[in-house]
Amino acid sequence: MTQRLDNLQAALERVLGGTIKVLKRDRGEISVTVDAADYQRAAMLLRDDPALAFEQLIDLCGVDYSDYKNEPWEGPHFCVVSHLLSIAHNWRLRVKVFAPDNELPSVTSLSDIWNSANWFEREAFDMYGIVFEGHNDLRRILTDYGFIGHPMRKDFPVSGHVEMRYDAERQRVIYQPVSIEPRENVPRIVREDHYGGLH
Questions:
Q1: What pTM, to 2 d.p., does this model score?
Q2: Which of 93, 124, 148, 197 is surrounded by the fewest CB atoms within 10 Å?
Q3: Cα gap 113→82, rounded to integer Å
Q4: Could you report the per-residue pLDDT of 143-186, keeping only the tens digit for each?
């Protein structure tokens, strides 16, 4: 396993060179971080260079780092994480890219490089509001068309913005502002000396 990771790391450093901002080896895997400006070029090299040959994008997701590990995060908040597979070399790679603008997070689409990115990018757009430049059909995929906001962002309210209910008078489903009062649930702690028959 170590030799395979050494080979992959050497190939990555040779092909991508200075494009790699961070290369991390952890738990038998390699993760690389690239700049948003280099993202599409790096993806094409990862796919097309025979030394790497990452033929498949097997997953892509968004991440909101704004409150990472319950601590303030310095730098861009929104990240796109892609998982690649090389069948030819039997190795995997994680690629991370941070959207430089927190107000309107945006990175280049990879759907022209790996068509499997299409729905994954739509999901990241829907859940996090990350815009994928060059995507030919970037629209919501999991939430309703009238949905307000992006539910996986850490600043999204737990109760949401609107609720849906059936109105018997109108005989249809209607949307209305959320009527749930926000509250904080504090877990009850059992402090009995003989709880559960224990002495």
A1: 0.81
A2: 197
A3: 13
A4: 887 788 899 999 888 767 677 789 899 999 887 777 777 666 66
**Cβ neighbours for 142, distance < 8 A, ≥ 6 positions apart:** 123, 126, 127
62 found inside a domain = yes
* Domain presence at residue 182: no
Which amino acid, 82? S
CA 87 to chain centre: 24
Instruction: Evaluate whether 32 touches 59 at the Cβ level (below 8 Å).
Output: no
Residue corresponding to tokens 């990879």: 110
What is the rounded distance in angstroms from the CA atom of residue 110 to the CA atom of residue 56?
12
Between β-strands 56-64 and 172-177, what pairing exists: parallel, antiparallel or unpaired?
unpaired
Q: Is the dihedral of CA 156, 157, 158, 161 positive or negative?
A: negative
Which residue segment(s) compose the domain that 110 sits in?
2-143
